[in-house]
Design a protein that fits this description.
There is one protein chain. This protein is mainly α. The chain has one domain. Helix content is about 70%, strand content about 0%. Helix 2 crosses helix 3. The protein is elongated. The termini are far apart.
Length: about 60
């Protein structure tokens, strides 16, 4: 492995992701998986659904 890559890997081993970063990862995962099943799904739709869920809104999102 390239030395600089090994250094980067070692540097991030002790890092803890922020809640914001975890939310970004979650939304990216949701988008990736739902878009595979339905190409009409957009990142904006995922963002709207996540924000509605965070506010406690449970109605159908379109």
């Amino acid at each position: 492995m390239i030395a600089s890559l090994e250094e980067l890997i070692e540097a991030v081993k002790g890092m803890t992701p922020t809640p914001e970063h975890l939310e970004q990862q979650r939304r990216s995962f949701v988008y990736g998986n739902t878009h595979l099943e339905n190409e009409l799904i957009t990142r904006e739709m995922v963002d709207r659904a996540a924000e509605s869920l965070a506010r406690g809104v449970t109605r159908h999102l379109s």
